[in-house]
Amino acid sequence: MAYSLEGKTGTWEVVCGLEIHAQVISESKLFSGASATYGGAPNAHVSFVDAGFPGMLPVINRECVAQAVRTGLGLKAQINLVSRFDRKNYFYADLPNGYQISQFDHPIVGTGDVEIELQDGTIKHIGITRLHLEQDAGKSMHDQHASKSVIDLNRAGVALMEIVSEPDIRSPEEAGAYLRKIRQILRYLGTCDGNMEEGSMRADVNVSVRKAGEDFRTRCEIKNVNSVRFVMHAVEAEALRQIEVWESGGEVRQETRLYDPARGETRSMRSKEDAHDYRYFPEPDLLPLVLEEEFVARLKAKLPELPDEKRRRFCDEYAIPFYDAGVLVAEQATADFYESVAKGRDARLVANWISGDFFAAMNRTGRSIENPPVSGAALGELIDLISDKTINGRIAKDVFEEMVETGAMPGAIVEAKGLRQVTDTSAIDAAVTQVLAANPDKVAEYKSGKDKLFGFFVGQVMKAMQGKGNPALVNEAVKAQLG
Amino acid sequence: MSLDSATVRRIAKLARIRVDDAEVGVLQTELNAILGYVDQLNEVNVEGVAPLSGGAQMAMRLREDLVTDGEQAENILANAPDRVGQFFAVPKVVE
Amino acid sequence: MSLLNLTIAQASAALAAKKFSAVELTAAHNAAIAALNPRLNAYITTTPELALAQAQAADARIAAGTATPLTGIPLAIKDLFCTAGVRTTAASKILEPFIPPYESTVTRQLLEAGTICLGKANLDEFAMGSSNITSGYGPVENPWKRNGSDAKLVPGGSSGGSAAAVAARLALGATGTDTGGSIRQPASFTGLAGIKPTYGRCSRYGIVAFASSLDQAGPMARTVEDCAILLGAMAGFDPHDSTSAERAVPDFTAATGRGVKGLRIGIPAEYRMDGMSGEISALWEKGVAWLREQGAEIVDISLPHTKYGLAVYYIVAPAEASSNLARYDGVRFGKRVDGEDLIDMYERTRAAGFGPEVKRRIMIGTYVLSHGYYDAYYLKAQKVRNLILRDFNNAFEKVDAILTPTAPSAAFGLGEKMDDPVTMYLNDVFTVPASLAGVPAMSIPAGLSAEGLPLGLQVIGKHFDEETVFAVSAALERAAGFTALPSVRAE
C-alpha cells in the first residue's frame, strides 16, 4: 500500500529525490598527487594544488575517472564519452580556491536506473538523473579554539561522485532502500566504501509534498544527512513540516535546510541563501574529458557481477528462495563465502546455515565475513557430515558451537566426542521401548487420541540417545511401536 | 544593460570585496562604460556557433593514480597569516 | 667591452670564450640595477646575492664544459612567476608577504639551463593592465623619452618591468607573460623583441594565474635570436599543466635563419582601423615591402571578427580572473586584514589587498558570470571567440603568417589614457585576437616614431608554428636594422 500522510485537509503524497555524495576509492586525490586516505595529521595529505596556492593547476586522476565510469555502468547509466569540468564559485574557509571543480551541464554519466525492494517484496525502479565527479572541500572545526575556527585541508580535493536521482521516491522507506541499494552497488563495484560514519557517503535530500494528481510543489533540500536512518527520518519530518505550512495557509519556500537528529526536525540554513549564485563556468585549467569507447568497454568487461544479477543467479543456480538470496548477496563478501561453501553441496542447506547459525555466531562474536567465526572449509565439512548422515542436524548445531569456540574442524569434533549419528535400528528400537515403558500414562493419552504427544516421545528417545539418533529412523521406530 | 548601485553592491558582496558609498558610484560608472563597450557583441550573429572555452585544442591527459605529493604540512602552513598548531585559523564561524 | 650592452647570443659566446665570467657579467648587472632601479622601478625585488651565487655555479659549469647557451645569462623574472624562496607578489599588496615554497616550471627550466635571476620584475597588478600603472609597488618608467622631452612615459604592460629592465640594460633578457598583449605591447613600447608562443607551448604551472585560457609565458629580449634561445629553454611539455601540449620543442634558433622566400604573408584588412596614426600604417607598409623584397608573397586576407576581439577579451579575461583571484582570501597565504567574522575578514582583506583595476575586473567578471547574465555575456563571448579562431584558421589556409602593427600607438605618458578604463583597453586591440585564438605572435622593433619612440610590428603564426614566426620576425629585424637605444640606460 502506498505511503501517505494524513493532514487536516486530506491525504498528502511525499515526493523525494536524493543527491548522494560518494567518496571515490583511489590512492590519490582527483586533481593532485596527495594521498586520499582518510585521517592523517592535520594538513598532511595536502599538496599546494589542494591548498589553492598561486599558480597551482589541477591534473585529473585516471582511476577516479574509471571509478565514475564503473559506477555509471553499475547504475545501468549512459556513459558520456565527452564531459567537462566547471567551476562552482563560492567563498568558504575550507574551500581553498574559492571554487569547487565540479561538472555542471556535461556530467560524465547520464541517466540510469536502480531497482529497490521494499519490505513487502515489491520491486520499484528509481531513475538516476546523472552522476558527476567533483572535489571534496576541507574541514572547518569550530570547537578546537575559543575564538577561532581551524581548518584541515586533508579532505580538500578528494574525489567525490555526486549521484542524483529522479524525484521518484515516495516514502521514507523508499528513500532508505534506495540509499542502501546505492551503497551496496558502490561497494560491489569497489568504487566507494559506503562508510557513512566517516563521511565517505552522505546525502542531500530533496523533499516536497503534494495532493494526489497535482504537479510537484516547491521542494526543500536537506543538506548532508549522514545515515540511512536519518535520511528516512528527515524525509518524514520535512514532509510533515511542509504539510503543516501548506495547511496553515502558508507557502513552502525553496531553501536549504539541515536535519537535526537530536530533535528529529529540520531547520533553515538561511546563512547559505545569499551565497547561492555559484557562477558556474567551464574550468579553463582543464580540457574536455574525452573517453575512448575502448576504455569504457574494458571497464565494462571487468565489471563484477552486481547484486541484482547475483541474486537472480543464486535463485536459479542454487534453487534458493528469492528472499534468502537477497540476504546472501547483501554484501559481496558474504555472497562469495556462500558460493565457496555451496559449490558441490546442498546449496539450500548451506544457505540456511549461513543465514541462521553462522550469522548469529558472527554477530555474537563481533566478527565479520572477512574474519568469519568458522572458515568456509570448516562449514563445508560440517555440511558434508550432515549430508552423508554422519551426524544429524541437531548434533550439527552443537558441533558448530564447538567449532566457533575452539576453532577445531567438525570431523575431529565428531570423532573425539563420538557424535556420529546412530542408524542401528536395534539400538533405536531399544531406546524407544525404554521410553514408552517409562511413560505408560502418556502412551495411554496418545492412544486415546492426543496425537500431539508423538513429538514428546521422539524428543525423549533422542534425549536418551544423547541426540545422536537418526531423526527419520527414530520417527519410524516410535510410530511402529506406538502401533 | 546597465548596472544600478544595488547591483554593484550585490556583485561586490558576491566577490567579497568591501566597497564604500563613494566607490559604488565610481565603480558603477566604470563598469557601465565597460558593459556599454562589450554590448557591441550583440551585433554578431552566433547562431549555430559552439562556445569556445579554452585556448588548447586537444583532449585531456589523465594522470596515473599515484601518491606523489603531500606530507609537507610545514610548507603548506608556512605562509599562513594565522594558524593554530598544524591548522589554518580564521575568525570563529558560527553555524 | 661593456658587459651590459650585449645580446644573449654575444654574451653566451663571450662566456664560452672566457672573455669574462658569469660572476663579472652578473656583478655588472647588479651594479646597474642598484644605480638605475630606484628611478625606473623595473624590479619589485632584487636578488643580487642569489644572482652571484648562481653566477658562481654557472662559471663552474662553463669550466666543466656542461654549459648551455643560457648558462650565466642574467635575466629579469616577471614577478608573476613563483620562485622558490624568493618573494613573489604579482605586483599586488595582497601577496606582499608571500614566499612560494615552489618554483614555476618555466623558471625551473631556465635555472636548469644555467640562467641567473637578477630579481623579480615589476608588472601591472596580477598582469591586469597595459601601462604598468596598476602595480601595487609603483609604476615603471619607460627608459625611452620623446625627442626633447623628459616627460615620463609608460613602458606598456603588463610585463612593463621586464621590458624596462631589458631596454635599460638592467638584464640581458626577461620572462614575460601575455594574456592579451602583455609581452608584445611593452616590447613594442621599449624597442624589444618579445613572443607570446602558442597557448600550451609553455607550462603555466607556478605562474600566478590571471586568465587561465589565455595566459602564456614568453621571452622578451633585444633580438629575435635571443628570444628564440630563451623560448627554447622555457617551452616544453609539463605533466603538471593539463593544458600543456605534449610536443617536442623545435630548434627555434635555427628557424631564425630560414628566411621568408616563398612564404605567404597575410595582411588583414580589418587591422586598418579608423584613427590609426599615419606613422603606424606607414611602418606597416614598410614591413610589407621588407618581406616582399626578401621573397615573400603578400596576400590580402580578412579576419572579419577582429573588431570584436577586445569586447570578447574584456568578458572572458575578467570572468576567469574573478574566479582565479578568489583564492586571495587571507586564509592560507598573503596579507590578511582582520575582521569581526569570516566574511568581514574576507571583505576587508580583499578591499585592502587589491588595487582599483583588479577590483574592477573582478567585479565585471563576477557580474558576467552571475545568474541571469551568463548567456548574454560570457556564453556569447565564447561563441564570438570561436568565430575569431575560425577567422585565423581560415586565413591560415591561405597564408603562412600574418603581419600587423603591434599597438595602435607608441608609448604614452604616465597619466594619459586614464579618462576611463575602455580608452586604456583599446591599447590591446591588435594583440588580443591572437591571444583569443591561442596562436603564436611576436613583436619586433621596426622603427621610431616622429617623436623618437620605438614602434613594433607583429607577426602572427599558426598554432605551434613559432618557427615561421621566428623566420619572418628575423627577416623583418634584418631589414629594419633597429639600433636605436633608450636615453635612460646603464652603460
Walk me through this protein's architecture:
Chain C: Belongs to the amidase family. GatA subfamily. Chain C: It catalyses: L-glutamyl-tRNA(Gln) + L-glutamine + ATP + H2O = L-glutaminyl-tRNA(Gln) + L-glutamate + ADP + phosphate + H(+). Chain C: It is an enzyme of class 6 (ligase). Chain C: Its EC number is 6.3.5.7. The complex is a heterotrimer of chains A (483), B (95) and C (491). With 483 residues, chain A is of the alpha+beta class. Helix content of chain A is 39%, strand content 19%. Chain A has helices spanning 62-74, 172-189, 228-247, 293-301, 307-318, 322-329, 332-342, 347-365, 376-387, 393-406, 410-417, 425-438, 440-447, 453-464, 471-482, and strands at 5-7, 10-23, 82-83, 86-89, 99-102, 112-117, 123-135, 139-141, 148-152, 159-165, 201-210, 220-225, 256-260, 265-268, 281-282, 289-290. The two termini of chain A are 52 Å apart. With 95 residues, chain B is mainly alpha-helical. Chain B has helices at 5-14, 21-38, 73-77; strands at 83-84, 87-91. The mean pLDDT of chain B is 93. A two-stranded antiparallel ribbon of chain B has the order 1-2. The two termini of chain B are 37 Å apart. Chain C has helices at residues 8-16, 22-40, 48-64, 105-113, 160-167, 184-190, 224-234, 252-255, 278-293, 309-324, 342-353, 356-369, 375-395, 421-425, 432-437, 466-480, and strands at residues 43-46, 74-78, 116-121, 173-178, 193-196, 216-221, 264-268, 297-301, 401-405, 441-448, 454-461. An eleven-stranded mixed sheet of chain C has the order 1-3-2-4-6-5-10-11-9-7-8, with helices on both faces. The chains are: A alpha+beta (483), B mainly alpha (95), C alpha/beta (491). Chains in contact: A-B, A-C, B-C. The interface between A and B is large, with 50 and 39 residues.
